[in-house]
Design a protein that fits this description.
The complex is a heterodimer of chains A (281) and B (274). Chain A is of the alpha/beta class. Chain A contains 10 helices and 12 strands. In chain A, strands 1, 2, 3, 4, 6, 7, 8, 9, 11 and 12 form a 10-stranded mixed sheet that branches. A two-stranded parallel sheet of chain A has the order 5-10. In chain B, helix 1 packs across helix 10 and helix 7 packs antiparallel against helix 10. Classes of the chains: A alpha/beta (281), B mainly alpha (274).
Chain lengths: 281, 274
């Protein structure tokens, strides 16, 4: 009895000691924070670099592009990740470097006969003025409109492209991440949603019953994002507090090399043709 | 005179820590949300809309969504649970009762994500992402525990009381309704309050089926959003004012759940003296 109580006391004591121990490894830790769309790229890059240099520790934390920008500005991180352009205010004192392109695809259920939508039609669906698939040449049925949670860059990119206000959208479902959006569309023959093209293409190729809708006369795909013909396209950035430091440069060099292009293509992102640092706006 | 026992001292310390945990948590949430209350967005808390990226933080749809899903789920789960408990206590044979208890135990321990997946595949196709789906999933979640706790309360009723009742010439229904249920009422009400506070705090399973659109819950087919699902969907991506507002959302859930518990205990005590 007494022993077990002693043990019980030892646990929090050990936790407290661990908590207050000085962190010796902190000096060699390289912290990257921000967009969860960009994070998988950096996680793979980090794994490659850490294998080459066992003393190096790169940590990748998500929290949205907003966090990536804030942390980079406040020098709370060594580099930030953003899946959107920075406003003039945000770009102050930050050095954004584009690393890849990505697009947003509209998706419907694979059985939906509608294959193409125009800007007016998409806007009408999301404003609630078009509510039935029969108005779009599909089988009659009420459209299930899927929107994304506020704070996510995909939502902001979508709203900006279609010139919509968040409060004007008439949604039936709001989802958090891309995977949830894909799952809902796969399970509802009358649903429409939008996700990153990479995610959509990967899901459709692995047998999930969803279909990418032609928009602006162009089929959304990695290829049409790459050649610039698909209109809903965004650039992914790495953000540095100043000029990229030594480790930052190693990350950029790796991304520019064949190995980095392999990582980007493996994740269904579009590598840049030629890389150059974007001037702060 | 007792010798000093470091083990007991540690245990006492742990006890104090546990006692400080709850008020500490509330203070933390209040502290984090305080900047919001003094900021320019505070006035929007009473709005009927929740649009953080436009600076509108109306809690009404979230609170209404939370109360609607939880209270309706309790309304659905309570009669089913009570019926199950009464059946197990007074009507079922030993083998059926043992089986029922085992099944309820397994269902009660079901992780909420599993119930959410069940809801996604089996309830969404029929009811759509809506208040109704949220209610069904939450009711599924709280029914087993509510039934088991109610059964426990019924078991606490002394056998002699029931036998005496029967000797006095009461019929079986009267023994059950007038004696057993009345005697077990405090325990059953406490169980209901516990179930309600669990429903108020549930996030994951509800998020998967309720639609998460911050509407006022005006019908069972309307997609709604609860306080907890708002935290699940937005917290990781929220910055500054938005993040501060979400701390207030968290504080509101904690207060609602505490209120439910407190109310249950009060009801239970009143029932006990009846």
């Amino acid at each position: 009895m007494k022993k077990s109580v002693l043990l019980l006391g030892a646990l929090p004591a050990a936790a407290a000691i661990y908590f207050f121990l000085p962190r010796t490894e902190a000096a060699s830790r390289y912290l990257i924070t921000g967009s969860s769309t960009v994070a998988p790229i950096l996680q793979q890059v980090a794994a490659v670099l850490e294998e080459r240099d066992p003393g190096l520790r790169i940590e990748v934390e998500t929290g949205g592009s907003g966090r990536g920008i804030k942390d980079a500005q406040g020098k709370l991180s060594d580099a930030g990740m953003s899946s959107r352009e920075l406003s003039a205010d945000e770009a102050r004192g930050i050095h954004p470097v584009p690393i890849a392109h990505d697009g947003i695809a509209l998706i419907v259920h694979a059985s939906n006969p509608v294959t193409e939508l125009t800007t007016e039609q998409v806007t009408g669906i999301y404003l609630g003025t078009i509510t039935d698939w029969s108005d779009l040449g599909g089988a009659p049925g009420k459209i299930t409109v899927i929107n994304k949670a506020e704070g996510r860059s995909t939502l902001e990119g979508f709203l900006a492209h279609f010139k919509l206000k968040a409060s004007d959208v008439e949604a039936d479902v709001i989802v958090g991440d891309n995977a949830q959006g894909v799952r809902l569309v796969a399970g509802d023959q009358r649903a429409i949603g939008y996700v990153s093209i990479g995610e959509a293409q990967r899901s459709a190729e692995t047998g999930t019953p969803i279909k990418l809708v032609r928009y602006g006369g162009v089929q959304p795909s990695i290829a049409t994002v790459a050649d610039g013909s698909y209109p809903i396209r965004r650039t992914l950035f790495l953000l540095f507090p100043a000029e990229p430091d030594a480790i930052g440069q190693r990350i950029l060099d790796l991304l520019a090399a064949d190995e980095g292009r392999g990582i980007l293509e493996g994740l269904n992102f579009v590598p840049l043709g030629t890389r150059k640092a974007a001037a702060p706006q | 005179m007792r010798e000093f026992a470091p083990g007991w001292a540690a245990a006492a310390l742990l006890g104090v820590a546990a006692a400080l945990l709850a008020p500490g948590l509330l203070l933390f949430l209040l502290f984090e949300g305080f900047a919001f209350l003094t900021g320019p967005s505070a006035a929007t808390l009473l709005a009927r809309e929740w649009h953080p990226i436009e600076g509108v933080f109306g809690l009404l749809p979230l609170v209404a969504g939370t109360l609607a899903t939880s209270l309706l789920a309790l309304l659905l789960a309570f009669p089913i649970s009570l019926g199950t408990a009464l059946h197990a206590r007074f009507f079922a044979g030993k083998r059926v009762r043992d089986l029922l208890e085992a099944v309820l135990g397994v269902l009660g321990g079901m992780p909420s994500v599993v119930l959410g997946l069940f809801g996604t595949f089996w309830i969404l196709p029929h009811l759509g992402p809506s208040l109704g789906s949220g209610v069904v999933v939450l009711a599924l979640m709280i029914t087993p525990t509510l039934a088991l706790l109610s059964l426990g309360a019924l078991r606490q009723v002394p056998e002699e009381l029931l036998i005496d009742g029967a000797r006095l010439g009461l019929r079986r229904e009267q023994v059950i309704l007038r004696l057993a249920l009345v005697r077990a009422r405090p325990g059953i009400l406490a169980a209901a309050a516990l179930a309600l506070s669990r429903a108020l705090g549930e996030a994951l399973a509800v998020e998967m089926v309720c639609g998460n659109v911050p509407n006022l819950p005006t019908g069972l087919t309307v997609p709604v959003r609860t306080l907890t699902t708002t935290l699940v969907q937005e917290f990781e991506y929220a910055r500054e004012t938005h993040a501060q507002g979400l701390h207030l959302v968290a504080l509101t859930v904690v207060l609602l759940a505490t209120l439910a518990c407190g109310l249950g205990q009060k009801l239970a005590r009143r029932g006990g003296t009846a």
